[in-house]
Amino acid sequence: TQGQHGDEGTAGHRIVAGLKIIKALQELYGVSAPIFVDNAESISDGNLPDMDCQMVCLYVSDDKELRVEVE
């Protein structure tokens, strides 16, 4: 799918690969820190790896006002 800034599939794969690297480093060093994921709309539903930390995912939307959702 072509997005506004290029191939969203490739961007999503890049983000997921980065998260997997972060997870491996967190396990290796025994640390856990919050992770901010920008452009999270490029990641397919259910494709986020399970992370043992807080994640703040930022999505682009057409909403007129800022919206915050907590899961």
Annotation keywords:
alpha+beta, 71 residues, single chain
Characterise the protein shown here:
The chain is of the alpha+beta class and 71 residues long. 31% of the residues lie in helices and 14% in strands. The protein has one helix and four strands; from the N terminus they run ββαββ. The strands form two sheets. A two-stranded antiparallel sheet has the order 1-2. Strands 3-4 form a two-stranded parallel ribbon.
Short overview:
This protein is α+β, with helices and mostly antiparallel strands and 71 residues long. Helices cover 31% and strands 14% of the residues.
Layout of secondary structure:
Elements: E1 2-3, E2 6-7, H1 8-29, E3 35-37, E4 55-57
Parallel strand pairs: 3-4
Antiparallel strand pairs: 1-2
The N- and C-terminal alpha carbons lie at a distance of 27 Å
Mean pLDDT: 86
Radius of gyration based on Cα positions: 13 Å
Count all strands and give the number: 4
Shape: globular
Which H/E pattern describes the elements?
A: EEHEE
Strand count, sense and barrel status of the largest sheet are: 2 strands, antiparallel
